[in-house]
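Complex record, two chains
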Amino acid sequence: MGDMIRVEGVVKDYDARTRALDGVSLTIREGEWTAIMGPSGSGKTTLLNIMSCLDSPTEGRVVLAGTIVTGLAEKELTRFRCQNIGLIFQMYHLVPYLTALENVMLAQYYSGTVDEAQARRVLDEVGLGHRTGHVPAHLSGGEQQRVCIARALINAPRIIMADEPTGNLDAANGRRVLELIRKLKEDGHTVVMVTHSQNVAALADRVIELVDGKVVSDAASPGRTGAPAAAGAVSIS
Amino acid sequence: MFGRVLAKSLARRRSRVALAVLAVVMGASMASALLTTSYSMNEKLASEFRQFGANIMVLPRSETIDVGLPGMSLGSVTEQRYINESQLWNIKRIQNWSANVLGYAPFLYQVVSSRAGGSDRQLVLTGTYFDHAVPQVPMGDGGDWTTGLRTIAMYWEVSGGWVERDDDLTGAMVGTDVARKLGLLVGSPFEVNYTDPETKEVRSADLQVRGIVTTGGGEDSQIFVNLDVAQNLTARPDKVHTVQVSALCYQCPAEVIAREIQHVMPDVEAKTVRQLVNAETMIMMRLENMMGLVTAIALGASALGVMTTMTTSVIERRREIGLMKAIGSTNGSIGSLFTAEAAIIGVLGGVAGYIVGYFLAGLVGQSVFGSAVTLVPVVIPLTLGISVAVALLAAVIPVRRALRIEPAAVLRGD
C-alpha cells in the first residue's frame, strides 16, 4: 500500500497570536484508518480541514493521492475534494429543506452526474432505504448522520474525513455509524477520523495525538496492539 | 437538481421571499403606473393642447419685388397671393403623418361695412369652414372626414350655436365685440356690404347671428361665415388667405408635419406656431422628468428592500452555503443559485407590480384626465425588465457576501 496522505511541516496561523498547527508532519497509507486525538484547541479539526482541502496551511504542504494540493486554485481544490474526499461532520450539516435522497443527490450534482438510482442504493446500504423522502427535521440524529455518510460515499471517494462522527449520537447510533466506517475501511477507503473518545480511537489502525498544534504521539491503536476490537463491542459513551 | 434546490429553497423561505417580492412590487408598480400614465398622458396632453388651437399656419408662398430706379430704392411690394381651396384636402393626405392631422380651417378675410345706430361700421368678415365634409378623404364608416373651426377651435366660448351646415348661406357667428357694436343678439338679422376695390361695385349679404363667440383674441372683433359666402361676396371663388392646421404632436414634431404639407402643396409655406409647440414640449419634458425622478426613488427603495432581505437570507444560510462549497459547489453554482432567486423575485414582483401599477394609472387617469388610461403593451416588458434588473442589481452585494463564505469557518461554527 502506498502513501495516500502526506502532511509535510504544516503550520497554520489564524492570526499573529494564534498558531493552530505548529510544524505537523505525518504520512497515512492507503486503506489505513487513522484516529486523530487531542484536547480541545489542540488543532485536530484544523488539521482535518487542511487534509480535506477545506482550508490551506500557512506553511508546509499537503500531498493527497499523489497530488500536491497546497497552492491549487480554489476551483481546482473544489474539484479535487469533490472527486477524492468524502466528508462526515459531527453536526451532519444536511440541507434542511431537501429530503435525505436529495441531500445525497446534491453531492452527485456538484460532481457532475446525477443518478437517483445510485443515490437510493447508497442510502439503502446505510440502512435508510425506507427514509429517502424525509427531510432532516423528520430524521433522528443517527439517521441524519447516516445520510451524511451516504452523501460522503456517493461519489466513490478514496479518502473519508470524519470530524467527531459519533460526537452527537447516543451509544446505539454511535455503534451503528462506527460499524459503517469500519466497512468503509474494509472496502479500501482511507479513513481519517477526529475523535475525543479513546474507545472510538481504539477501533482505528493508528492513533495520532496532537497537543498545542504538535504531534505528540503517533502509534498503532490500543485495539490493534492488543486484541482487535469489533465496533459493536466498543462503548463510545 | 438546480431547479429542485431553487424551488425548495424559495418555498421554505416563503415569508422572506414574499417580503422581497413586495419590495419589488412597490417599485415596479410605480414604474408601471408612471410609464402607463406617461404614454397615455402624452397622447392625452397632446390632444388637450390641441383644444387651444392650431399649431401649424399655412400661408401662400409670397414673392417680394423690389421697386425703384437704378441707384434709388423705393422699397418693396408683396403681391397678394391666395391658396386654392380645391387643394386643401391634400393637407389630410400627407405622406407619413396624415393620421396626426386632426383638422384644418381655411380663412378668407375682407373688410365689410354694416349699418348700426345710423352709421356704417367697418368690420372684418372671415369666410371659413365650420364643419366641412371633405369627400377626397373618405372614412371607414362610409362617410367623409369633416374639418373646420369646430375641430380646431374647441376653446371658443360660444353662446347660441354654431353654423351647422356648409349650405347655410345666411348663418354667421359674430365676435362678442361685433355683437356689442352692432347691438346683435343670437338670432338677430343684419346686413354686410362689400365694395369691390376695382369695380367699386357694392355687394350685400343678409346674415343672421347663429352664435356669439368669445375668445379674448382677434376673433372677438370678426364675423365668421361659410367660406362660400365670403368668396361669393368678394368674387374670389376657390381662394383662401391662410389655413390653420391642428396636428397631434405626440410622436412627431410639428415641423415634420409642416414639411410634409409643403411637399404636397408646393405653393404654400407651412409654419409651426413655435411658441405653442415649444410650450407643449417643455411641459411634457418637465412632467416626464418629474415622473422619472419619482420612479427612480421608488426603484431605489425597492432595490434596498431586496438587498436587505437577500443579505439576511445569506447570513441565515451561511452554514448551508458553506456545506454546499464543502461538498463540491463552485462559486459559480452558489452565485447562480442566488442570482436565479433574485431573478424569480424580480419576475414575480414585476408581474404583480405591473398589475398594481395599471390600476394605479387608471386612478391617476380618472382623477387628472377624467378618462381611463389605455393598456400600453410595451409597458409590460419594460416593467418586467426594470424589476428583474433592480432585483439582480440588489443581489450583487449579498451574492458577493455568499461567495466570500469559507466552508471551514462556518462548518466549525465560527
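Note: Confidence is low (pLDDT under 50) at residues 226-237 of chain A.
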